[in-house]
Amino acid sequence: MPSDQLLEVEDLTTTFGTDDGTLTAVDGVDFDVDTGETVCIVGESGSGKTVATESITRIIKTPPGEIEGTVRYKGRDLLAMPESELRDIRGNEIAHIFQNPQEAMNHCYTVGWQITEALQIHQDVSDEEARAKAVDLMDRVGIANASARFDDYPHEFSGGQKQRVMIAMALVGDPDLLIADEPTTALDVTVQAQILRLLDELQEEFDMGVLFVTHDLGVVAEIADRIVVMYAGKVMERGGVLDIFDHPAHPYTQQLLECLPEFGGTTVGGIPGTLPDPHDPPDGCRFAPRCEYAEGACRAGEQPEEIEVSPGQRVSCVHYRPGMDPSVVRNDNFEPVGGDGAADGEGGVSRADD
Ligand code: SF4
């Protein structure tokens, strides 16, 4: 394992027992995060990205959840270790920030009390030391007059300030990996930009790996080093941020980008159609029911194997072969694979290895 690899997730599968049968939220997903880099998991609501990240530290309730696969953090498998051992890592070496700070905070206690409590859970420090550290953390995340605001209650903070407090609480253990799940979704655009800038600065200062979950590719463009695109519990595409924005290969990624006017997208109101029922996903490619390039070969067997189309960029789509032009599915040379129900296509991409 390379020395800078912090997290390595292999074949992660998370299911839930429900009254309607087994729901598979995450289905055989792989990804990794290196020290000091930001990996964004992106996809629509229901794609499985949140469940995947919550499975890493097993904060999914089991039962009804069941988590399988391997999650190696600094070489140790988090899914195989006893809960007592994992508790030392969770909130300490690996910290989470969630979407809604309003719900994550206790409104009966002062903000300072909540940060010091988090500190004293993880560190053997006196009340005075905890207070000094809490004020320092509040200061570092940009809470003005931190010392004076220590005794304020959450309702006395704005939404952006509350998220800064949540970030301060996440930093109490000096984490090596920060998992941030839609941390800016509830904030207005200006505050969102401030929080993203803050996370960027803190990542450098703390030399953390960041696993960032979002449905917003505009946010991804700001912060990602690498991107993992998820759909219906599967990885559709992965690659460096420039690969994904310059030459997105998977039709789903292309359609996500088409929803971004700031990147020239013209789709209004999101991608047409809905995600498949996770109790009964379709055979073949999960995206087939919404894909304009779908044909018979897409609708049989398993999700297509990921194919590397450029260094580090891999795509799960029947239309690709190794090293193939990552834009082939959307350019005029698109050629169907063939089979029942094949989409119409003209011209021909050279596919000598077919
Ligand atoms: S495998 Fe078929 S359905 Fe899936 S993205 Fe590719 S073309 Fe579309």
From TrEMBL:
It comes from the Archaea. SMART domains: AAA. Its EC number is 7.2.2.11. Residues 338-348 have a biased composition (Gly residues). It is an enzyme of class 7 (translocase). Residues 7-257 form the ABC transporter domain. Keywords: ATP-binding, Cell membrane, Ion transport, Membrane, Nucleotide-binding, Translocase, Transport. GO terms for cellular component: plasma membrane. InterPro entries: AAA+_ATPase, ABC_Ni/Peptide_Import, ABC_transporter-like_ATP-bd, ABC_transporter-like_CS, Oligopep_ABC_C, P-loop_NTPase. It catalyses: Ni(2+)(out) + ATP + H2O = Ni(2+)(in) + ADP + phosphate + H(+). GO terms for molecular function: ABC-type nickel transporter activity; ATP binding; ATP hydrolysis activity. Residues 328-354 are annotated as: Disordered. It is a peripheral membrane protein. SUPFAM superfamilies: P-loop containing nucleoside triphosphate hydrolases. This is Nickel import system ATP-binding protein NikD.
